[in-house]
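Our consortium's second objective concerns turning raw sequence data into structural hypotheses that experimental partners can test. To show how far this objective has progressed, the report includes one record in full. It was chosen at random from the queue rather than selected for favorable results. The single chain below, 602 residues long, was entered without modification.
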Amino acid sequence: MSKIHVMDEVLANKIAAGEVVEKCMNVVKELVENSIDAEASEITIRLIDSGVKEIEVSDNGIGMDEDDAKLAFQRHATSKLRNLDDLFYIESLGFRGEALPSIASVSNVRLKTSNGEVGTLLTLSGGKDLKVERTDLQKGTTITVSDLFYNTPVRLKYLKNLYVELAHIVEYLNKMALSYPSIKFTLINNDKVLLKTDGNGDLLKVIYEIYGVDITKKMIPISGDNDDYSINGYISFPEVTKGNRNSITTLVNGRVIKNNELNKCIVDCYHTYIHKDRYPVIVLNIDVDPILVDINIHPTKMDIKFSKMDTLKELLVELITKRLEELTLIPEVSVRDSYSVSEVRRQIISNDKSDDFDEVKANSSKEKYEELQLDFEVQEEKKEFEKQEKQELEEALPFEVDMEEKVEPRIKKMIPRGVVLMTYIVAENEDGMYLIDQHAAAERINYEKILKQMKEKPIIIDLLVPIKIELRSDEFILVKERFSLLESYGFQVEEFGENTLIVRTHPSWIVEERSEEMIRKIVDIMIEKGQFDFDQFIWRIAATTACRMSVMANTYISSEDQEWILENIRYCENPFTCPHGRPTIITYTRYELERLFKRQLD
């Protein structure tokens, strides 16, 4: 008896569904792409329970007759490829003919379609029991997919929670709306509208609908072409950044793609403009002859290969870097808070001048005299400033160590002898000489302080002016899911209009002068994609907050502040590295110093 046999069609479709349909977003993606290929100008997506219970996609496209409607659910049946040559010149979003039969095999499907001449209603259950009826002649197609994965319980078990599934769908539809600004998209979940564009073809207006007014005002149009590629779209000012790469939307001939090499090229264009862990907001459409790209390398069709990547990168770099160089990248000035004032004052304080003021006055030009006179006036207030500076540092950086809770210190007592390069404290004890990174050490102290305070009942600080944060709709969904987590740590967070949250209170371990910056960073951490890890979240919040509230390198600190850092670092659980793993302290033993100076010879 033969061991090899042809698989049952239903079984084959279920296997194909494992590649095409992994989550609710995949179903939405395939159905929306079919609607776009059907020349629809309006597409409405209705979800029940983030699509787990039901997904309905309706359009006003060209529709199908009865024969085409029945053929659409047969594997590898498609209207988009006729022969092998067509595979090298793909202009449609779909082309394999796998999506509908794969979706139907793991759900209950209802298809209502009309080409204006005949209306057809099809129903299937698990890819079987096809029923065909007549229906009205309203042109277009409506597909309803319900009870997804009802007959594959293992796959149903591995669906993410409803918030995560919905966030994936919203993120995808945001990108499709950016790809096709001339199509009117509407997304509704449990009767709540999450996305609505008017389809007037204005890309900037779509950016406004997704990102909000603050980011839209900071977007810059770019366009250009070479012999192979044409690029147009928007890039953000360097001051507008996000904490993950999801803010980079790249399109090829209207298709949303993910290409790591392309994304890296875009981010590299912002080198020295933004922090290495931040990413710009980008919406770029690349038009290219289809023969120069290969989209047939993955079932999701999200990855893509370019036959002339070098010329594409050259054009991209030229357009973005040239545009950035043309701009006056000076952020709008806002009212300076006490922190920024102290930073300015810190910069104008110079090293101690000569006490012989009369000699300087006699031997200097009038300009030099007036300049030095200002320096001396600054010196007169330096003592008062240092007193204020010390108080600010004590409020921002340190925490009082409870002497009764102190255990044996991990490091022997060190005596400060000065600071080099305004960054490294020089200290000594009987064992030798030490160099302490003032920022890394303060960061470690504050990190352990914050972790301790996070375990206790938070002390709440009311904000005089609440902080408003605008998000994309998919980002807002993820943050909203975790409102209770924020509240448990002392943040009072509320919805404030569409896709906007407002923060009214924060815990005392947030430095008040930097509260908005730190809270925005916490929100960025919360909306990062991937499995949410509570322990990693707590670590990153504590580490990020400690970094923001700690004295920076190239910052003047007094001898009292040096003593404070040296004393408190001794009692940390791990005084040897900062929360990010950088060393806080290095040492030269007496023996090593004497060897360096040839006082000890081996």
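The partners drew two points from this record. Residues 14-18, 80-89, 330-383, 396-404 have pLDDT under 50 and may be disordered. The chain has four domains: 9-199, 205-326, 338-394, 406-602. Both points have been shared with the crystallography group to help prioritize constructs.
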